[in-house]
Amino acid sequence: MKLVTLDQICYFQANDGDTVAVTAAKEISIDRSIKALVGELDPGTFLQIRRGAVVNVNAIKAVHRDLRGRLKVELKHRDETLEVSASFAHLFRNF
Predict the structure, then answer these.
(1) C-beta of residue 54 within 8 angstroms of C-beta of residue 38
(2) What whole-number percentage of the chain has pLDDT above 70?
(3) What one-character-per-residue DSSP string does the chain give?
(4) Which domains does the chain have, with CATH numbers?
(5) Is the pLDDT reported for residue 4 higher than 70?
(6) What pLDDT, in 10s, does the model give residues 49-89?
(7) Which residues of 2-23 are buried (b: 16+ CB within 10 A; e: fewer)?
(8) Is the model's pTM score more than 0.70?
(9) In sequence order, which residues have a C-beta less than 8 Å from that of residue 75 and are 6 or more positions away?
(10) What value, to the nearest 5°, has the Cα angle with vertex 21 and ends 15 and 26?
(11) What is the model's pLDDT at position 72?
């Protein structure tokens, strides 16, 4: 077992009833719901982007709109982009 610190986590995502902590190199299943994590994590460092995902603001490379006007989060150390739901878009006005 290897310890992973919060600053290594790019984002948390709900995945078929589990929650996965995603780092630059791996995905780790954890025993916490997204709802519980939102209450425990520093809101200055971790922002909810949709009901099932929370992103580390220090892992964000860029935030931009796609052709349909939806916000997308591009990560520094991951290839995937994450979509921000309309409910949480207001949190990304400063990006």
Answers:
(1) yes
(2) 99
(3) -----GGGEEEEEEETTEEEEEESS-EEEES--HHHHHHHS-TTTEEEEETTEEEEGGGEEEEEE-TTS-EEEEESS-S-EEEPPGGGGGGGTT-
(4) 6-92 (2.40.50.1020)
(5) yes
(6) 999 999 999 999 999 999 998 999 999 999 999 999 999 99
(7) eeeeeebbbbbbbeeeebbbbb
(8) yes
(9) 10, 11, 55, 59, 60, 61, 81, 82
(10) 105
(11) 96
Give residue 27's identity as a one-letter amino acid code: E
Query: At 79, phi and psi to the nearest 5?
Result: -80, -30
What are 17's two structure tokens? 């009833």
CB count, 10 Å around CB of 31? 7
Q: Output the pLDDT for position 37.
A: 95
Amino acid occupying residue 50: R
